[in-house]
Design brief:
This protein has about 650 residues and is an alpha+beta fold. Helices cover about 15% and strands about 45% of the residues. The chain is built from eleven helices and 34 strands. Strands 1-2-3-6-5 form a five-stranded mixed beta barrel. Strands 7-8-9-12-11 form a five-stranded mixed barrel. Strands 13-14-15-18-17 form a five-stranded mixed β-barrel. A hairpin with a 2-residue loop joins strand 11 and strand 12. The protein starts with a helix and ends with a strand.
Length: about 650
């Protein structure tokens, strides 16, 4: 039976108090309950309310504590939202060049258009990025600062940040199957960041270079980048061994570089242990810890990992060197640990004496450790059962997810396969099924698979006869049966189904036989910022949001039917959105605008309205009224103007000319 951790903690403490002798009177009940409530809240508190159990929570909150990334005003981080080019560059600049100073006016001299394409908050970091040659003004004109950054764009920025100047190909061969369209310069940069461990592919050997990168993915990349560079912010990061923890007084003592140092813990500090969110009471003396300090010296982030110091260690061999200074590396609870071998090591394989070089990667071993040296190794080749979710099957190997850890095994030539109780072949296996493997060493001799009859998740993409779905934060691809039954709500075509909507799959023998897609409509209201390349950007509560336009999107301007080409910036729009796809737009443009005249350029007028430069198109027969009978070509800047708009275009222009 499972109990909540907080309840167990309360019962344990109350039981302890009941056993204390009368010489030490227990505090009143309300004091105990208040203290327990305080500890319970600390245990589960997250810095961002939408990251409580997210797979990238540790990376996000560690980078947030260092000041490299931030969330939104409503307390969310929005991990699945796409990071823009200017956001990605800002994060990289903060991690590599914290506190960098640059003359913005000099960098952006005669670049008014780039200023308009960029957000005000990002101007400093963007100037530093251009100054440090992480990007160029020309590249930003092409990619657009406020548009989503693609994976190859971010790889390029990071490569330039880590490796100044010309970048030669690295001593690594990319095995990605989808990078043939990249030019040689981008390939060279990608090779470098892959060789450095910043970027990785997936089990399908795809890199997806042109896929937008999410904020959660960016946080993980930023964490890896931060571990590669040194800067002033590293002084706020302390690594050591946990010496003591005081939950009541919120203090932590760490042994670092041979000295014990005590720090205050901020009440909103993030705590993780073994890559999972934890409470202060979950930390154990002797843990390896990394803490991040705030400007006032308080601990804002704690990342702890259990140090394995055992006389007996059990796990799978992931590396071995039998030469001088020989060592063996073993995977234990999802982490790999390296142990050095004594000069004389007793080796047994299935109870018989053997040599060290007979041990193979993938073998299951039991190590006997004395004085931190391995003195004996037992290799078990007897059959054992491994249960997990199938991740991938390729090249006579099977990869399964076991307790959040990927494990790969070789398939025996005559491996037996049963799917849903019926005999089958290896070629019938697909990702997503729950498999029981009979394993000898690292060789699979039998596979029994049960595929879930129903799977619920988030739709990602449809590719030919396959569908990719996000299930419990994992991307899973399922094959479609020949006559799959498809049920889509909201009446849109399958080709127009946007990513991010909820789906339910019915499976039979690992193939989708029924697909139900729940597409709910929602209404977004905001000011139009931009309409370009089949996308519309609107300003909603001071936040830019970009949506794709459906091919048959309906448009109404001031109550009359119109086309997408008739839309202009400045109008207040009501969008009917399905996922991230706009199916209908209703726009009302302001009827009257007052401001300060700046310039007239062809069939456009630029006016300063509430400290913002706004350009409006002129209607064909605009009515122009200039006081004082002045000539339009002689109108001075800073003159007061009144505009009457219809359908977003100026139909009447009244200018009050300032006397010289």
């Amino acid at each position: 039976m499972r109990y909540k951790r907080g309840l167990i903690l309360v019962l344990t403490v109350l039981l302890t108090l009941s056993l204390i002798g009368t010489a030490f009177a227990a505090p009143p009940q309300w004091v105990q309950e208040k203290k327990m409530q305080k500890m319970f809240m600390k245990q589960f508190k997250a810095r961002f309310r939408d990251l409580t159990e997210h797979w990238a929570a540790e990376a996000v909150e560690r980078m947030s504590a260092k000041g490299y990334i931030s969330g939104y005003g409503d307390g969310t981080f929005k991990p699945q939202a796409f990071v823009t080019n200017e956001q990605a560059l800002a994060m990289i600049v903060r991690a590599v060049y914290p506190g960098a100073e640059v003359d913005q006016e000099e960098v952006f001299f005669n670049m008014e258009k780039l200023r308009q394409l960029s957000s005000t908050w990002a101007m400093h970091e963007l100037a530093v990025a251009i100054d440090k040659q992480l990007t160029t003004a020309e590249e930003m004109f092409s990619l657009v600062p406020r548009k989503p950054a693609r994976r190859i764009d971010v790889a390029r920025y990071i490569a330039r940040a880590l490796l100044k100047g010309d970048i030669d190909p690295a001593d690594v061969e990319l095995d990605f199957i989808d990078v043939e369209k990249l030019d040689k310069d981008d390939l060279a940069m990608l090779e470098k960041v892959v060789a450095l461990g910043i970027f990785q592919g997936d089990p399908s050997k795809t890199f997806r270079p042109f896929k937008p990168i999410t904020r959660a993915e960016m946080a993980v990349l930023l964490k890896r980048l931060d571990e590669k560079v040194e800067n002033e912010r590293d002084k706020a990061e302390i690594k050591g061994i946990l010496k003591a923890i005081d939950i009541d007084d919120l203090e932590i003592t760490i042994t670092a570089d041979g000295e014990d140092v005590t720090y205050n813990i901020a009440e909103d500090a993030s705590v993780f242990r073994n890559n999972k969110r934890a409470g202060l009471e979950d930390l154990e003396i002797g843990d390896e810890v990394l803490v991040v300090l705030s400007e006032d010296g308080a601990v804002k982030f704690i990342g702890a990992r259990k140090v394995i110091v055992k006389e007996k260690v059990e796990g799978k061999v992931v590396g071995i060197d039998s030469g001088d200074n020989s060592w063996i590396k073993v995977m234990v609870d999802g982490h790999s640990y390296q142990y050095y071998l004594a000069d004389e090591v007793d080796v047994e394989i299935d109870g018989e004496e053997a040599e060290l070089d007979e041990i193979n990667v993938g073998d299951y071993v039991i190590l006997k450790v004395e004085n931190q040296l391995v003195v004996a190794v037992e290799v078990e080749l007897e059959e054992r059962e491994v249960e997990g979710i199938i991740e991938d099957i390729e090249d006579d190997e099977i990869t399964v997810l076991v307790d959040d850890e990927e494990q790969t095994f070789r398939l025996a030539d005559n491996v037996k396969v049963k799917i849903d109780g019926e005999e089958a072949g290896v070629e019938d296996l697909t990702a997503g099924g729950t498999a029981e493997l009979e394993v000898v060493g690292d060789l699979v001799v039998e596979i029994k698979v049960e595929y879930e009859e129903e799977v619920a998740g988030t739709f990602l993409k449809m590719d030919g006869d396959e569908i990719t779905v996000l299930v419990d934060d994992e991307e899973v691809t399922y094959p479609l049966a020949e006559n799959v039954d498809i049920d889509i709500e909201a009446g849109i075509n399958l080709e127009e189904v946007p990513g991010g909507v909820e789906v339910t799959l019915e499976l039979r023998n690992g193939k989708v036989v029924r697909l139900e897609i729940e597409v709910t409509e929602r209404e977004i209201t905001g000011a139009i910022e931009d309409v370009d390349d089949g996308e519309i950007t609107v300003l909603v509560d001071d936040e830019e949001q970009t949506f794709r336009l459906a091919d048959n999107v309906k448009v109404k301007i001031d109550g009359e039917e119109a086309g997408v080409e008739d839309l202009t910036a400045g109008g207040t729009a009501e969008l009917e959105v399905v996922g991230d796809l706009v199916v209908e737009i209703k726009v009302e443009y302001e009827e009257e605008v007052a401001g300060t005249f700046l310039k007239m350029d062809g069939d456009e007028i630029t006016v300063l309205v509430d400290d913002e430069e706004v350009t409006y198109p002129l209607a064909e027969n605009v009515d122009i009224d200039i006081e004082g009978d002045a000539d339009l070509t002689k109108v001075l800047a800073d003159s007061e103007v009144e505009l009457e708009l219809k359908g977003g275009k100026v139909v009447k222009l009244k200018i009050e000319v300032e006397e010289e």
